[in-house]
Amino acid sequence: MFQSLSDRLSGILDKLTRRGALTESDVGEAMREVRRALLEADVALDVVRDFIDKVKAKAIGQEVLRSITPGQMVIKIVNDELVAMLGSEGSTIDLHATPPVAIMMVGLQGSGKTTTTAKIAKRLTDRDKKKVLMASLDVRRPAAQEQLRVLGEQTSVDTLPIVAGQTPQQIAKRAVDAARLGGYDVVLLDTAGRIHIDEELMRESVEVRDIARPHETLLVADSLTGQDAVNVAKAFDERIGITGIVLTRADGDARGGAALSMRAVTGKPIKLLGVGEKWDALEDFHPARVASRILG
Ligand code: GDP
């Protein structure tokens, strides 16, 4: 992830450090190049503008330009602002609630929602030693419930038995009841997706949310769709309220525009990255580590 941006930025910043003394116009020129690089990485325009303004305001201070290593100081400022843009503190799935903790997975069809549900379930089971139940609430896509059942078998995670003819709302209720009765720590609800956001999808999600009262509502979005992923996150947040984002297909995304804009545009943290099709291809999202990966 971020390969192209990382290459571009290291080129621009290397040039600055090699110059020794820096003038205001050197910094201004470098920032114009950084701006271009961020836009080419498909970062949202407002986010880029805000980022450049902040870096410039700090970097054009006299202490920076008069220092012995002005280039290094500019790089540090760029790094700090990147971390701030990505959400500083970082964030992971929050299970601090009375069990069974419900986690609702939402997103468009094909975003990787079902795969991510199984990846999270497996991680919580193996790493965090939680007793996890998964349930598919997707009654529209043929075989969606069966897909989750098979994934449950492959990952050795329990799935809610399929009952034909139930509505998503009924399945949500049954899942939460089964999790409570069965002494589960976590119940993961994989909701239906659509090709596009539509009113019916949102209404159904709101109703499921009100039944399951999830502690976490995670939006799964495809990193490769760039700013569309950011818009999808905004729309879901406005309608049902999300607590975090999982960006999938980060393994194939050389640009990284969605990852870079998501937090600043939606105010919601990226909690996890999907980095492949295997069960363990799931990474925590640490803003500081991501920034240092970008700056090389
Ligand atoms: P859903 O319709 O949102 O439930 O999507 P699925 O979970 O069925 O995933 C669609 C396809 O994307 C599957 O082939 C997954 O293996 C693949 N996929 C999901 N997450 C990732 C990821 O992080 N990286 C890659 N490379 N493929 C992924």
Automatic annotation (TrEMBL):
EC number assigned by the record: 3.6.5.4
Membrane topology term: Peripheral membrane protein
GO terms (BP aspect): SRP-dependent cotranslational protein targeting to membrane
Catalyzed chemical reaction(s): GTP + H2O = GDP + phosphate + H(+)
Residues in SRP54-type proteins GTP-binding domain copies: 269-282
Keyword hit for Transmembrane helix: no
GO cellular component, as recorded: plasma membrane; signal recognition particle
Subcellular location: Cell inner membrane; Cytoplasm
Keywords per UniProt: Cytoplasm, GTP-binding, Hydrolase, Nucleotide-binding, Ribonucleoprotein, RNA-binding, Signal recognition particle
Signal sequence bounds: none
GO MF annotation, one: GTPase activity
Described function: Involved in targeting and insertion of nascent membrane proteins into the cytoplasmic membrane. Binds to the hydrophobic signal sequence of the ribosome-nascent chain (RNC) as it emerges from the ribosomes. The SRP-RNC complex is then targeted to the cytoplasmic membrane where it interacts with the SRP receptor FtsY. Interaction with FtsY leads to the transfer of the RNC complex to the Sec translocase for insertion into the membrane, the hydrolysis of GTP by both Ffh and FtsY, and the dissociation of the SRP-FtsY complex into the individual components.
Subunit structure of this chain's protein: Part of the signal recognition particle protein translocation system, which is composed of SRP and FtsY. SRP is a ribonucleoprotein composed of Ffh and a 4.5S RNA molecule.
Similarity comment: family membership: Belongs to the GTP-binding SRP family. SRP54 subfamily.
Domain notes: Composed of three domains: the N-terminal N domain, which is responsible for interactions with the ribosome, the central G domain, which binds GTP, and the C-terminal M domain, which binds the RNA and the signal sequence of the RNC.
Protein name: Signal recognition particle protein
Gene: ffh
Portion of the parent chain present: 1 to 296 of 527
